[in-house]
Amino acid sequence: MDQSIMTTDYGAPESYFVFLVGHNEEWPENRVEEGDIALFNEYLAVGVPPSQLCFVKDNRECTNTNCQYRLEQFLQTTRPQSTLVFYYGGHGQPNGFCTRKAQWKYQQICTTIENQFQGERVLFLLDCCASGNLAHWLGPPFYVTKEYISIANSPPFVVASNEGEEWVLSNSFLRGMRSNGNGNVRLEQVMDFLTDRIALVLGDQATIFVGDGVDCTRTDWIPRRSRQKYIPVSDTILWDRLNENIPKDARVSSRWGIGNYVFYKHPGGVCKPNTRYLPPGWYNAKILSETFFNDDCIVDLLVECTVTGVEWTVQVPRNQLMNDSYMAQLWMVPKGCERTLQQLAKNFKYLDFSIPPDTIVVASDGGGLRSGRILDWRYFDYEGYLDSDGCSRDPPFGAHVVIEWFDGDETRTLVPVVNISFPTFDVPSFPQSFDDVNGMEETWSRKAMLMSIESSGKVVCNAKDMIGSKLRAFWPEDEEWYDAKPLDPDNVSLKILSSHIQFTLKGAYCPLWYEDGERHLSPAFYVKRKR
Fold first, then answer.
1. Going by C-beta distance under 8 Å and a sequence separation of 6 or more, which residues neighbour residue 145?
2. What is the mean pLDDT of each run of 10 residues along the chain (531 residues)?
3. Fewer CB within 10 A of the terminal residue: the chain, N end or C end?
4. Domains in the chain, start-ordered, CATH in brackets?
C-alpha cells in the first residue's frame, strides 16, 4: 500500500469527488427520500463541495456518449489524495450500463477512471442487473494502480429482483452515511448491513469486490460530517440478530442435506488457509456434513467466493443459513445460447462448463498451435456462432470450450477439448466419426446434452419419482408458485433440457409442464407436492 494513503485525511469531505448517473425515472417513488437524489443531497450535506459533485440524471442526459464525456470532464477536476465515489442506478447488462441509445461499457468506464482519476481510491455503488460484472475490470489480469472497492446489488450475469423495493442499496448506504456523525463507521460495517438487507428484504445476493490489499475496515471510506447531527434509530445501521431476521421461507430445513447448496453469511475477514481478505456477504456454499445436538444441527460447509475463486470450509448452525430457493437467481443468458446448446447436441457436441475460466491453454484450432485462455461461457457470441460455418457436424465430437486467443485480435472460438494439448483434461469418450454414430444419432445427441448439464453441476431427475404427480412449482422471475405436472426426462426435447441454463443453482433438476403451458427444466428445490 502507498504510504501516503496511510497518512492522508481521506475522511475529510473536501477529499471526496462524487459522480452519479441516475437513469431512474422509472422509479420516482421515494427517489428524493432514499434514492439517487437522496444520495446526491447527502454528500452535499456532509460537506462535499458542490464543485466536486456531478449528477447525470434521467433520459435526456443519460446517453452513453454524454455520460462518458461528463465523466472525463469531471475527472480532470480531481486531485491527488482524494477518493472518487461512482454511483450508477438504472438498468444493466453483463457488458455495461443501459444508457440511452447504447450501452456504456464497464471496460470503458474502468479504463477511463484508471487512466484519468488523479486520486488513489475509488468506491463504486452499483444498483442494476448484472452490476457485479464491473468488478471483472478492477483486478488481474488487468493492470490497476488505484485502490478499488465495488458494492453491487447483484452478482455477475444475474437479474436483480428488486421489484417494489428499488432503493435498498442506496437507502442502506445512506443509513451508513447518516450514522457516521463522528467519523467512526467502518465501510465494512455498512457492507455487512447492506448485504443483509439485500438478501433478507429482496432475496438477492449482493456482490462486493475489495481489491487485493485494500483496507475496507478503515473509517474514512465514508466522509465524516462537518458538524454533528442527531440521527434517529431508524436511520442507523443497527440490525437485529441474524437468525431472528431470516424469513420462514428462507430457512434451511432438513430437506437440504449433504451435497445440497445453501447461502452462508460470511462476517468479513481472512478465511484460512487463504490469505486474502473477503468482505462481509452471503456466499454460495455446499453442505459437506451434518452433526445433530438435541434439536440443533451443525453443518460443515464448503464456501465459495465466485468473484475471486477463493474456497474455504466453515462450521455453522443450520438456522443461520438461507436456502437457494429463497435466494433464487436467473442468469442473463446470452442471446442464442440455448439454441447453440441444442444445435451442438444435434451435432454430438456439447459445451463443457467444468473447466475454470481464465485457465491458460495451448490448443489447435485447425491452423497450428495457439495459446489462449478459457473464456467464461457467458461472454461468447452465440448468435454469431450459429451464423458461422463453425456450427457443423464435423468431428471432433464431445466436449467443447470457449477459448480467447492471445494473438492480438482477441478472437473467441469454440474449440474441442481433445484439441487442447496443454494442460490435458479427462473428458468422456465420444464417437470419432460418423460411422461410429450411424443409427444412434438420437442417443448420442441426448448424451451430449446430458453431459453438458452434468458438467455445470446439475443432474436430471424425474419429479414424479421424487415428489409425486400433482405438483406446485416456483418460478423465480415473478416469484410465484404454479400448478405443474412432471415430464418424463427420457422423452423431453433438447429444447426443454437446454432451458436449465437459465438457472444459477446446482443439483437436481426436473422437467415440468407448468399450468400456463410453459415446459421447462427446473431445480428440484423449486418443486413441492400439491396439497
1. 114
2. 63 96 93 95 95 94 96 98 97 94 96 97 96 92 90 92 80 91 87 93 92 93 74 61 78 89 93 90 95 90 89 94 85 93 96 93 87 93 86 89 86 93 90 86 95 96 95 86 96 97 91 94 92 87
3. C
4. 3-239 (3.40.50.1460), 248-323 (2.30.30), 337-437 (2.30.30), 457-529 (2.30.30.140)
